[in-house]
Amino acid sequence: MRRMRPLYSILVVALLTSSAVAEAPKGKNAPPAAAKATLGKPAPDFTLKDLAGKEVKLSTFKGKTIVLEWFNPGCPFVKKSHTVGSLVGTAKKQVKAGVVWLAINSAAPGKQGNEPAMNSDAAKTWSLEHPILRDESGVVGKAYGATNTPHMFVIDKKGVLVYAGAIDNSPDGEGKSAEGGKLVNHVDAALEDVAAGKAVRTPATKAYGCSVKYGS
Amino acid sequence: MGRRLLLLALVAACGCGRDKAKPPPKVQDRAPGANALVEKPLYRIEPGQRTPCTPGALCEARLAFSALGDYHINERYPFKFNADAIAGITVDGAGTFAREDAKHGTMTIMFRAARRGPAKLSGTFKLSVCTEENCEIDEPKLAFDVAVD
Q1: Are A159 and A29 in contact (CB under 8 A)?
Q2: pLDDT tens digits, A114-162
């Protein structure tokens, strides 16, 4: 019986550990993507595949600040933002600072910007090093209320949605028509507040750009 | 005499020998390129209404914009006219775009001309039009005449 004790203990520990591993990816607070995203509430969890077919699960990044960028390489506003506007180098800079940056393409099959090759080409041309996730069903896009490309969301280290809206205040996508005169990169500003442990000063703005090319 | 009167009456009744008063063609009905500075399947830009202009005074040049087909004006997009540098003409700002309805608007460009006589303004018209499905941005270059009296 004494010999049985260590074996029993190992079995119990193993069972508890496997249970914890199985629970961890679900996340304690993150609702599934079918739930609607709300500012100040836990961001809905999702699992999507990147262009290489690798699964990416949002809740695995818990403890890190995350940016979600609704993306469509065929949208002229996305092109402008990535070639001359506020998205030039922004993701790279933020990733270097420890932020997780995920682009999400919710274009349905047959719609503008859906083709994987077009997305890969854009990533190469615009030197994007972050994953581009495919959401062809639009479930994640609709859960987050993504209406435009680009449409930006910031999730803090606790998994709470703290910013939703435009990349900046220049609706030409070029950063040359700033409303109010001074160009503000809303995502940079929100990330600055998050890093400083402050409440995001401007948690919501109206996104501009193309419509998200949902299937229905 | 009676025959002549009868003939005149017949001519008057059928309207023969008279030009029928046709209404002026609408912008949309005009032949493509008839008066347009830029004509594309998505939109058309034409010279707008001329206003008096004198040397040294702040003058207005107007461009009439029409979205074509299924396209409408992208309300959120800041339409601009970025003028080229032209000797003897100073352009104030990047124009003001006034949307009249979903498909029509007018770009007003304020300028001062140093000398009397015909002149040409040129520049880049920055615009965006959308369908229910897609938005497009375009930046056509165009040039048009202004008269300084």
Answers
A1: yes
A2: 999 999 999 999 999 999 999 999 999 999 999 999 999 999 999 999 9
What's the complex ipTM?
A: 0.73
E strand residue ranges, chain B:
38-39, 43-47, 58-67, 72-73, 80-83, 89-99, 104-113, 117-130, 135-138, 141-148
Nearest-neighbour CA in chain B from A171: distance (Å): 6
Q: Do A77 and B76 touch (CB under 8 A)?
A: no
B105: Cα separation from own chain's centroid: 10
Tokens 């959401």, located at residue: A135
CB-nearest to A112 from B77, B128, B134 is B134
C-alpha distance from A173 to closest chain B C-alpha (Å): 9
Output the CA–CA distances (angstroms, integers) from residue A136 to A34, A112, A153, A212, in the order listed: 15, 12, 19, 11
Q: How many angstroms separate the CA of residue A76 from the nearest CA in chain B?
A: 6
Picking from A112, A171, A213, the nearest residue to B76 by CB comes out as A171
Only one residue has tokens 């409408």, namely B72
- Report the C-alpha gap between A107 and A117 in whole angstroms: 14
- Beta carbons of A185 and A90 less than 8 angstroms apart: yes
**Whole-angstrom distance, CA of residue B7 vs CA of residue B70:** 52
- The answer to pTM > 0.90 is no
> What confidence score (pLDDT) does residue A186 get?
98
Q: Do A213 and B128 count as a contact with CB atoms less than 8 A apart?
A: no
| Three-state DSSP state, B117 | strand
Mutate to test the interface with B, among A176, A183, A216 (most CBs of B within 10 A): A176
Q: Are residues A138 and A215 in contact, defined by beta-carbon separation less than 8 angstroms?
A: yes
State phi, psi for B81 to the nearest 5 degrees. Answer: -125, 105
Q: What whole-number distance in Å separates Cα of residue A197 and Cα of residue A195?
A: 5
d(CA B91, CA A140): 48
